[in-house]
Write a structure and sequence with these properties.
Shape: globular
Structural class: alpha/beta
Bound molecules: adenosine-5'-triphosphate, magnesium ion
CATH class of the largest domain: Alpha Beta
Radius of gyration: 23 Å
Largest sheet: 5 strands, parallel
CATH topology of the largest domain: Rossmann fold
Number of domains: 3
Number of strands: 11
Order of helices and strands: HHHHEHEHEEHEHEEEHHEHHHHEEHHH
CATH architecture of the largest domain: 3-Layer(aba) Sandwich
CATH superfamily of the largest domain: P-loop containing nucleotide triphosphate hydrolases
Distance between the termini: 53 Å
Helix content: 40-55%
Number of helices: 17
Strand order of the largest sheet: 2-5-8-1-9
Length: 396
């Protein structure tokens, strides 16, 4: 019964994978579609589709030769980069620790690209997203016929990362059953495909990342201690952005340029007052949040200037920028603006993005892409906030 549904999932997935390979639409559009489709499916099929979208994203990055520039490599991340270069020479497992948005994935890629494996695969897997019934198949692959009528042989994570790097993202979320399996491969250095006889040996460098306090998860019994010892050989802690204000000017310039490029606007640079505001903000969402604030500043300034203060919510936005904004002005006390509520800020932000995208939600020029959100999530947020896309569409 269970085997049958696994087979159905893989069958469906293989058909979509094949179609995706032949698709003539733009890459980004197809990936949006895959993520959107995934939201309508059961957990196993959703996992497979999201994995496909992820692989396509990685392949695209690689094709474009985008070895992401690491801003702050000479400043706030100097020690981090020294550690990266040092450990990259060996094959030791690396554990990257840091708050959300600090750049754990960026650093994981840097470990790979500084290593002798740079020419090999870099495979990122999201450990929190594996449905229990797919754990074995995903980690180790399966042989043709391993469950009722299984159509093809599939390679698992370890085989696909052979000669390269396997990035176990969010390792703190790895389900208990998967922890046991992972530990076994790491101890034995070998494994078998599901339904396979042959013992396979692969050459894989392990990089893991987590924003959890894994040591605490170990004491609480949620993470196996023996696995912790295996993965925590060389920990690299990433400092939060608020602890490296020296990187703010370079980050501001980097993301201002990137925003202009993405939005097709003339590039505008932050001035001294903008930099002071950016340096004073605590950045709970770290570099990811920094990037979206700069993008918001570029959108609000519409190519004429960067509206950093407004993007940070410290001055009232101009009424004209906001549809039906009359009752949404922040209250002024003694000349100082009181920041609006989070819900209100989200509403304005979404409306601004819709205005900018002429009411389009999905696709490469849609608001979801601009806001770096899943279109499905954006639609449900819009529903909750009572925002409609229609008024932003051109008439006729
Ligand atoms: N030093 C940096 N220079 C340039 N861009 C960066 C830097 N650090 C992070 N970024 C960018 O910020 C965003 C978030 O980074 P990343 O995905 O690596 O964070 P993360 O720590 O994995 O976050 P999460 O825990 O939420 O998964 C990405 O778009 C990344 O390209
Ligand atoms: Mg990440």
């Amino acid at each position: 019964m269970e085997n049958n549904s696994i087979k159905q999932n893989y069958d469906l997935f293989e058909r979509i994978e094949l179609l995706a390979g032949q698709c003539t639409g733009s890459d980004a559009e197809l990936d949006d579609f895959l993520s959107e489709l995934a939201n309508h499916l059961g957990p196993a099929a959703r996992h497979l589709l999201l994995r496909l979208a992820e692989e396509r994203r990685t392949a695209r990055l690689k094709r474009a030769g985008l070895n992401e520039a690491i801003v702050g490599a000479e400043d706030g991340l100097r020690e981090v980069m020294a550690a990266v270069r040092q450990v990259a020479r060996s094959d030791a497992p690396v554990l990257i620790l840091g708050e959300t948005g600090t750049g754990k994935e960026v650093v994981a890629r840097a470990v790979h690209s500084h290593s002798r494996r740079a020419g090999g695969a870099f495979l990122r897997v999201n450990c929190g997203a594996i449905p229990p019934e797919l754990i074995d198949s995903e980690l180790f692959g399966h042989e043709r016929g391993s469950f009722t009528g299984a159509v093809g042989t599939r390679k698992g994570w370890f085989e696909r990362a052979d000669g390269g790097t396997l990035f176990l993202d969010e390792i703190g979320e790895l389900p208990a059953a998967a922890q046991v399996r992972l530990l076994r491969v790491l101890q034995d250095g070998s494994f078998q495909r599901v339904g396979g006889e042959r013992v396979l040996n692969v050459d894989v460098r392990l990089v893991a990342a987590t924003n959890r306090d894994l040591r605490r998860s170990v004491t609480e019994g949620a993470f196996r201690e023996d696995l912790w010892f295996r993965v925590a050989v060389f920990p690299i802690p990433l400092p939060p952005l608020r602890e490296r204000p020296q990187d703010v000017p370079a980050l501001a310039a980097h993301f201002a340029l990137r925003a202009a490029e993405r939005l097709g606007l003339p590039p505008r640079m932050p001035d001294a007052a903008d930099l002071a505001l950016l340096a004073a903000y605590p950045w709970p969402g770290n570099v990811r949040e920094f990037a979206s604030v700069m993008e918001r500043a570029a959108i609000l300034g519409d190519g004429r200037r960067l509206e950093v203060a407004r993007a940070l919510g410290v001055v009232p936005p101009a009424v004209a920028m906001l549809p039906a904004a009359a009752d949404t002005q922040p209250v002024l006390h003694g000349g100082e603006a009181v920041p609006v509520s989070f819900v209100e800020a989200s509403r304005r932000h979404i409306e601004e993005a819709l205005r900018r995208c002429h009411g389009r939600v999905e696709g490469p020029f849609g608001a979801a892409r601009l806001l770096e959100m899943n279109p499905h999530t954006l639609r449900s947020k819009m529903r909750r906030l009572g925002i409609e896309a229609k008024p932003y569409r051109p008439a006729g």
